[in-house]
Amino acid sequence: MTIDDVKKSIADFYEGQTTLSQEEALRNFLEKEEVPLYLKMDKRLILSLRKKERPNAPEQLENRLSELIDREAAKERPMSSSRKKRFLFWGSSIAAMLVVALGLGYFMDSLGPKVPAQPQVPQEAVCQILQSALVEVSTELNSGIEEVEKSQKEIRKVNKDVQKEIK
């Protein structure tokens, strides 16, 4: 097998295109022959993937493990009857409180005061009301602006008089 054949076999190996016999031939070659430095990592990887024999388990291991599991399971105490009663009492109490709370919430909601439906006001009436409110606000602002302008004129006049007296 030449280096080109090895490179092609390695590429096929990575792509999963090799048969078991081709993989075995590649492994045998890599075990026995020296490869260039750029193929050393591939050699290590491919040789590390070789199936190794599984060690045999000691006889009777399965039986001993089963017995150990059974003994440990027997050590666990079942729930005592008083503990069961307490658990059932608290569980049923909580469930009953939830049912009562949900029932009260439902019936209190149905017994509550009914809110009357809001009367529908025509859109034109709403527009007229808003328009009159805006006109009123506008006139108030205009009168306030006029008063501010008058007071500014008076302040300027007073400032001129003060400056004349200072000079």
Report on the structure:
The chain is mostly helical. Among the domains are: about 5-50, no CATH class; about 125-165. Helix content is about 75%, strand content about 0%.
Shape: flat
Order of helices and strands: HHHHHH
Structural class: mainly alpha
In whole angstroms, how far apart are the ends? Answer: 118 Å
Parts with pLDDT < 50 across at least 5 consecutive residues: none
Largest sheet: none
- Number-wise, the strands total 0
- Helix percentage range: over 70%
* Percent strand: under 5%
Mean pLDDT score, rounded?
Answer: 83
Rounded Rg: 49 Å
Continuous helix count: 6
Which tags fit this structure?
single chain, 167 residues, mainly alpha, 6 helices, 75% helix, flat
